[in-house]
Amino acid sequence: MSTYNGFYSLTAGRQPIDDSFSWINLLHQREKEEDVSFVPLDALAVPLKQDFRESIDVGYWFLTRSQEYDSIHKNKKDIRWFAEVEDMCGFYVLGSMKKCVDEKFWINILSRTVYSRDNMRLEPNMEGRVILLPPYSGEEYRKNKPDYKTERKKIQEEAVNHPSVSDEFDEKKDKLEETEFFMGQRLELLDNDDSSRLHVARIQEIRGRRWRVKIQQEDCPTDLDSMLNESQTEKDGTFWVDEESVFVFPVGFAAINGYNIVAQDDYITHTEKIRDAIKAQQHPAYDPEDIQETMLRREAIPKNLWSRIEENQKLEFLDPLDAKQNELTVASVRKVCITHGYVIVSADGDDEETVPIHVMSGYIFPVGYAEKYGMKLKKPLNFRGRYAWNKYLAQEGAVSIPKELTKPVPSQERLDKFEVGAYLEASDMNDNTSIYPARIVSLHGRLVRVSYLGYESSDDAYFDIDSHSLFPIGFSEICNFKLQRPKVE
């Protein structure tokens, strides 16, 4: 049976979280039973600031620390040896030490102790230089005195022409924490309790693509204690978002598009000036702390295609603020925003619950999507009888949003990577501080139904396959998030 080589964070001083769920038992089970599967690293959207999807694969060689020698040397030596990838599950690989018998181990590829083939940089707090030695046990080391020099020469000659992890891998790891954003930076944040309004919020912490954001009293004209969106306002600020989250908007969005925002008077004045400058086709005067529209990655939409969007067009909507996220809803475009690519959407029969959203965000679908892919569709509150789109469109004198203005369904080759029963990690849109071990239940076009381990099927949720709330296994370990343990009755 293989061992598990512990995770060593690339971030200095970052300690592992206690009581976090471990994948090791399922990884060991996979070695014995091949029917245990995991969503591949290249199936999901890139979850970090660097893309490692093509950096390592089955058959690749890499260097890793031989920790067996730590018990022999009084002062820690940076001793490494070659390993080959025998299997890959998310961010974990099953490595096999070369020229060794049954020396197999699971390791997260972004552990500090995984290196490219030619990496000879000494680890911090290590003495001397990097030494290449096979992982013999302490007893073998004392009794047999193996011919390390010969072994090392042979393996190095073999490694030169073998597919291996390259220097680019090390370079990406070095840049893993680099970001264009910074703590204290200002944005507009969708209220997770009342989507009809935005708030001024600031970045409190950054881990890869994820930000911990908070509405602060200094930016809010009302008492924060009286507000219901506690996770966005509480003292410790536990609201986490991806930098492409539907909750995140640039400074000035509300003013430019006439959306309600809770903000101090000086901020309102500031963003009105931004709005007026854009309207006059002038360069707006942002503050250095402002997150601008150009800083946020959103899918570009050609102007000739965008011109086809109109108010009152009908669509099917996966509401990101829905407590369950287990059905699509009949909805309408209530307003086409001035900010390119954005619309204001609301469920039909509930005009007060509006949501500002980018049409390519993954939450908007063309008419007929639910029926085509076997999903439940919540009909309008004012509709009586069995729902049918053709009947409803005729009744409302409306048309569907153009299919070309919604995200397309990916290729079958991509969809086939989402195997039913495969494991992954998934956050809860309504408690996005928490990340859970999960499995794929079913596939519905570009939506996957995900089940959280230990929870009832009524807690299942739908996610777009490009959602940044879905992660390969090992993600939480890399970014130091607690992976919640399965619920036990």
**CATH fold naming of the domain at 51-174:** SH3 type barrels
Number of strands: 24
Helices, by number, come to 12
The biggest beta sheet is recorded as: 7 strands, mixed
Estimated share of beta-strand residues: 25-35%
Helix content: 10-25%
**Structural class designation:** alpha+beta
Low-confidence parts, pLDDT < 50 over ≥5 residues?
Answer: none
Rg (CA only): 26 Å
Can you give the mean pLDDT? 90
Shape call: globular
Can you identify the CATH class of the domain at 51-174? Mainly Beta
CATH second-level architecture of the domain at 51-174: Roll
Task: Give the CA-CA distance, first to last residue.
Answer: 31 Å
Q: Which key features would you list for this structure?
A:
489 residues, alpha+beta, SH3 type barrels, seven-stranded mixed beta sheet, 12 helices, 24 strands, Mbt, PcG_chromatin_remod_factors, repeat
Summed up, what is this model?
The protein is of the alpha+beta class. The protein has helices spanning 24-32, 138-144, 148-160, 167-174, 230-233, 253-257, 265-279, 303-306, 369-372, 389-396, 412-415, 475-479, and strands spanning 3-4, 61-65, 77-89, 92-97, 104-108, 114-115, 127-132, 186-190, 198-207, 210-214, 239-242, 248-249, 261-262, 314-317, 328-336, 342-347, 354-358, 364-365, 377-378, 423-428, 431-444, 447-452, 461-464, 470-471. Among the domains are: 51-174, Roll (SH3 type barrels), CATH 2.30.30.140; 186-290, SH3 type barrels; 303-405, SH3 type barrels.
